[in-house]
């Protein structure tokens, strides 16, 4: 199969399209022919060697994709060959991925693979942050920093769905327009104006109950200062490239709570909340209340360009890599080497 692999940490220019062995599923795994995969900001940090954890070179980036199940392990019962699924999967920028059965979620009718691929990481991260970490209630005022990116727009959309009044803060007019389209009541251009003054003009001083922050940097402290007493501040990442230092006296005086949330380990540390959130989130998605904004679509050969666009914060919403042509996978064989029902692709087999 073809896969985009990074061979040297630094920039996306070190990505090559390699031919590698197609992985077989284990007993509780499924093999997915990837139709589309989404690029997330942490993917760009990983290939730059700036992420919190390191991966041995060479590796295939990507953690979010959608496609067709082509084979299932001998102990899989919930997913069948031919099912269209979205999943969180390491090594998603490839023609095939193997994932646990529990990670494969059916794609609702009428949702294409690109939209499905662009939904899980950002929207599920945002939902965990809002629902479980910040415990957002209807009527809360929620400030979302970086509101024009994939995670920020997801937080705007989901906070609105939870009944919150949303202030969207972003760096340009196009991003703020997208945030208003997703339900933001107020917007602040923090590149062209003072963030704190913009928040106060929108809702008054000290009126924010929740801050959702995937950006960090110099915007963290003014956002924290506008929390109401007992407010909740959730840190999700540092897209600005700067991890902020917070004066703890601000936390003391406001009775504030600062919490972090990371999607990779959330279910491990809080399985009850993770299961509940996932069920509620899936219901919202299947009801058509969640629709990610696709900024651009790239072929697998242009993975480097797709990742560069995200790294440079040029995108409004999600960037997607389209890999296997939809409808190119057909049922016609059982693979005796896998010991499970399998499919062959209408494209040439590159394994």
Describe the structure.
- With 351 residues, this protein is an alpha/beta fold.
- It folds into two domains: 2-119 and 292-345, Alpha-Beta Complex (Quinone Oxidoreductase, Chain A, domain 1), CATH 3.90.180; 122-266, NAD(P)-binding Rossmann-like Domain (Rossmann fold), CATH 3.40.50.
- 29% of the residues lie in helices and 28% in strands.
- It has eleven helices and 17 strands.
- It has helices at 41-48, 113-117, 120-133, 150-161, 173-181, 195-203, 220-225, 248-254, 263-269, 271-286, 303-311; strands at 2-6, 15-19, 29-39, 64-72, 84-88, 96-100, 105-106, 141-145, 165-170, 186-189, 208-213, 227-235, 257-260, 294-299, 318-322, 329-335, 340-345.
- The strands form four sheets. Strands 3, 4, 5, 6, 7, 14 and 15 form a seven-stranded mixed sheet that branches. A six-stranded parallel sheet has the order 10-9-8-11-12-13, with helices on both faces. A two-stranded antiparallel ribbon has the order 1-2.
- A hairpin with a 4-residue loop joins strand 16 (329-335) and strand 17 (340-345).
- The longest helix has 16 residues, at 271-286.
- The radius of gyration is 21 Å and the shape is globular.
- Residues 331-351 have low confidence and may be disordered.
């Amino acid at each position: 199969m073809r896969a985009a692999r990074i061979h040297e940490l630094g920039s996306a220019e070190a990505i090559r399209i390699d031919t590698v062995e197609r992985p077989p599923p284990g007993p509780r795994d499924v093999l997915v022919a990837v139709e589309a995969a989404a690029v997330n900001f942490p993917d760009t940090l990983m290939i730059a060697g700036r992420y919190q954890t390191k991966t041995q070179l060479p590796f295939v980036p990507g953690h979010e994709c959608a496609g067709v199940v082509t084979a299932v392990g001998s102990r899989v019962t919930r997913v069948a060959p031919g099912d269209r699924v979205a999943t969180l999967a390491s090594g998603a920028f490839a023609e095939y991925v193997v994932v646990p059965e529990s990670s494969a979620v059916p794609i609702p009718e009428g949702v294409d693979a690109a939209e499905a691929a662009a939904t899980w990481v950002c929207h599920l991260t945002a939902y965990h942050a809002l629902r479980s970490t910040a415990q957002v209630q209807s009527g809360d005022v929620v400030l979302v920093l970086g509101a024009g990116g994939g995670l920020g727009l997801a937080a705007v959309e989901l906070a609105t769905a939870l009944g919150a009044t949303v202030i969207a803060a972003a760096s340009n007019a196009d991003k703020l327009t997208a945030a208003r389209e997703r339900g933001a009541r107020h917007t602040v251009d923090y590149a062209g104006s003072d963030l704190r003054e913009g928040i106060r003009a929108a809702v008054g001083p000290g009126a924010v109950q929740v801050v959702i922050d995937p950006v960090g940097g110099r915007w963290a402290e003014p956002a924290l200062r506008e929390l109401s007493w007992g407010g909740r501040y959730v840190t999700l990442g540092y897209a600005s490239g700067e991890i902020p230092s917070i004066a703890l006296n601000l936390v003391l005086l406001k009775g504030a709570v600062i919490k972090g949330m990371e999607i990779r380990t959330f279910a491990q540390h809080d399985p009850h909340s993770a299961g509940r959130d996932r069920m509620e989130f899936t219901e919202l998605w299947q009801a058509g209340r969640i629709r990610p904004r696709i900024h651009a679509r790239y072929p697998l050969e242009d993975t480097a360009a797709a990742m560069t666009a995200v790294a440079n914060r040029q995108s409004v919403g999600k960037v997607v890599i389209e890999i296997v042509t939809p409808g190119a996978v057909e049922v016609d064989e059982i693979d005796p080497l896998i010991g499970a029902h399998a499919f062959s692709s209408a494209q040439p087999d590159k394994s």
